[in-house]
């Protein structure tokens, strides 16, 4: 079998109920030339069995597990390390990708050969899956800067404006960069500032390509282990 066009990396931890929905949203993409790599970061619930069923039902799914909780950065890096796609897409285990997510992002990359990194805004939804807003406003409005120096200033002065779960990159980017494994909060922000500081060309897509749960009971990725950060 030829290598897939896109490798979608999903790090997960104790998300036995939500993970299948996130995976299904990738399986239903209009772009079908992909693999899904699920990295189980020492889940203690029924997530391993859920992943096994998912992988058994779809040969495009590959899985690996860390028996020790290593955090989202290392888990994603592990997934990227075994990926074989021409492009790498990051996905969170509790979000829902719109069906055209990969198609739009790949088309954007292929229409702009100098780009190494694309991302989009996200639609925030409540527990009833009703849209409550779009984030970040600067991306939705089309005002996100294209110059890497201005991107760095924006991220440094105004906090992270790049939704990590929306990024798609060229494979070559990960030969030079990775998520910082020494931190578990703001690891994506740190990485994106590095990319901007090094002049990596990136492009924001104003259309929300993911739905992100923002209900009152929402818990962040792997947050049950935040006590191990310090």
Q: Can you give a write-up of this model?
A:
This protein is of the alpha/beta class and 230 residues long. It has one domain (6-228): Spore Coat Polysaccharide Biosynthesis Protein SpsA, Chain A, CATH 3.90.550. It is built from seven helices and nine strands; from the N terminus they run βαβαβαββαββααβαβ. Strands 1, 2, 3, 4, 5, 6, 7, 8 and 9 form a nine-stranded mixed β-sheet that branches. The chain is globular and about 45 Å long.
- The CATH homologous superfamily: Spore Coat Polysaccharide Biosynthesis Protein SpsA, Chain A
**Radius of gyration (Å):** 17 Å
What's the order of the H and E elements?
EHEHEHEEHEEHHEHE
Unreliable sequence segments: 224-230
Q: Biggest β-sheet: count, sense, barrel?
A: 9 strands, mixed
Please bin the fraction of helical residues.
Answer: 25-40%
Topology of this protein?
Elements: E1 6-12, H1 19-27, E2 34-41, H2 47-57, E3 61-66, H3 71-82, E4 87-92, E5 96-97, H4 101-111, E6 117-125, E7 131-135, H5 137-140, H6 148-158, E8 168-170, H7 187-197, E9 202-213
Parallel strand pairs: 1-2, 1-4, 2-3, 6-9
Antiparallel strand pairs: 4-8, 5-9, 6-7, 6-8
List keywords for this structure.
230 residues, alpha/beta, Spore Coat Polysaccharide Biosynthesis Protein SpsA, Chain A, nine-stranded mixed β-sheet, 7 helices, 30% helix, globular, disordered C terminus
